[in-house]
Amino acid sequence: MIPEFADPHAPSLPLWLIRPGATGAELLAEIDQPAKDWARAQGFSAKLGQWCLLPSTGGKLGGALFGIGAEPKDTERPSRERFVLARAVEALPAGNWYLANRPQGFDLTLGALGWLFAQYRFTRYKQIEASGARLVCPPDVDRERLIAMAAGEYMARDLINTPASDMGPQELEQVARDLAHRHGAEIEVIRGDDLLIRNFPMIHAVGRAGAQAPRLIDIRFPGQGPQLTLVGKGVCFDTGGLDIKPPSSMALMKKDMGGAANVLGLAETLARLRLTEGIRLRILIPAVENAISANSFRPGDILTSRKGLTVEVNNTDAEGRLVLADALALADEDAPDLLISMATLTGAARVALGPDLPPLFCDNDTLATAIQAAGQACSDPVWRMPFWEPYETMIEPAIADLDNAPSGGFAGAITAALFLRRFTSKARAYAHFDIYGWQPNAAPGRPKGGTGQGMRAILHALPEILP
Predict the structure, then answer these.
(1) Quick check: 254 pLDDT over 50?
(2) Other CB atoms within 10 A of residue 372 CB
(3) 215, 321, 350, 421: which is the annotated catalytic residue?
(4) Is-catalytic flag, 245?
(5) Helices marked H in 124-200
(6) How large is the C-alpha radius of gyration of the chain?
(7) Do 118 and 155 lie in a common domain?
(8) By C-alpha distance, which of 232, 242, 346, 214 is closest to 300?
(9) Nearest-CA neighbor of 100 among 9, 20, 18, 42?
């Protein structure tokens, strides 16, 4: 799908955004008395998500009222609902609509973005009718920026929603190639046994049992300025390996490449906005399938990473940090100004913060504060968690440098982040996002299925974190 606003020159109907207490005589002056009476007769009270169609002469539709709830008393606290206006997309009849007013405290930019997000449909395998209600982009809103953000979000959702039968390492590579071609970037892909020759032993070990060869995807965008490197976990399906997952845990494992989907979606947005011209953007994706075969890596194996650190495999279902480690080591060799990893890495992160709120691990206070503040401002929340130094001993087994799955189950998200940090010694700053990449229940602007997390937070923070 292509996100789009309505043609501003086409006929459109007014949509008034109303807060509680603004009905009857207190309604907007632009609405005539019969319309006010009609709204009152319909019981319209401007509750959150409530709507009321307004008649016009000749039995035609004259517009609509939409309730956006009470004005928040504390703008620093996140709203219970991210995209209030997205509710209108499903409620209103097909046609073009423009916002006829701007209530105090209402963010038109987030409103318009939520409208675009709500129009998303995953139609690869089934025709699903999209809402015909189109929004005319408000005149003081950056239309191209919103479309670029929605395009990146749509891309991430499409990739995560596609099952592994059609989104294995080879197909993920093709998506990366198409993105690179669209935006004039260079791409190199190292596959199969060449991973051993080029010193990516852990990517090879994890992916060698898959139906498709494991690979490392490396995209470099042309640009000048500070270097931003994004590393995304691309495990296209995760059986758990020989430590096989139960069926209930395997059902959603098509989404285990959500980190790759997010970094590709963010790259799409940055390129559309031509922000790649002012930075040196690099994308690294280790793309594998964690499968079961005679040549699967085993519990108890000792792997030697690209960086030379040895890793004891105590659980083959903790494979994401293994493939990320080799990719992070490569990224770190460039000593980038900012290195970011995004991965659907641990169940512990979901236990701690749930599906909506991904943990952000970062040692740099300025960087972490900027990203968390940007996420709150653009309704893409993240929550900072610590690289807790005393837990370093938990990832240090007796016979190798590192343990990929410490026993006991405590602090699983933290120990995974500490493991990854061991491969980032040269980068000027490092941040890790442990995302879920999935919306378990539909919400306004966020249909059930694959979803982007952290992309807009990074985008909005860029002016501060990469000046």
Answers:
(1) yes
(2) 18
(3) 321
(4) yes
(5) 143-161, 169-182, 194-197
(6) 24
(7) no
(8) 242
(9) 18
The residues that bridge with 439 in the sheet, in sequence order, are: 449
Q: How many CB atoms are located within 10 Å of the residue 163 CB?
A: 14
For 36-100, give the secondary structure using H, E and C. HHHHHHCCCCCCCCCEEEEECHHHCEEEEEEECCCCCCCCCCCCCCCCCCHHHHHHCCCEEEEEC
b (16+ CB within 10 A) / e for 229-256: bbbbbbbbbbbbbbbeeeeeeeebbbbb
CA dist 464 and 467 (Å) reads: 6
Q: How confident is the model at residue 448 (pLDDT cuts 50, 70, 90)?
A: very high
- CA 335 vs. chain centroid, Å, equals 25
- In sequence order, the β-bridge partners of residue 55 are 61
395 and 461 assigned to the same domain: yes
Q: Convert the pLDDT of each residue in 56-106 to its tens digit.
A: 877 789 999 999 988 877 656 667 789 999 999 999 999 999 999 988 889
Per residue in 336-348, pLDDT tens? 999 999 999 999 9
CA distance 1 to 130: 10
| Residue where one domain finishes, among candidates 116, 141, 166 | 141
Interhelix angle for 455-465 vs 258-272, to 10°?
A: 50
CA angle 149, 159, 453 (to 5 degrees): 50
Residue 138: the pLDDT is 96
Q: Is residue 4 part of a domain?
A: no
Whole domain around residue 375: which residue ranges? 147-465
Q: Please provide the average confidence, as pLDDT, over all residues in the chain.
A: 95
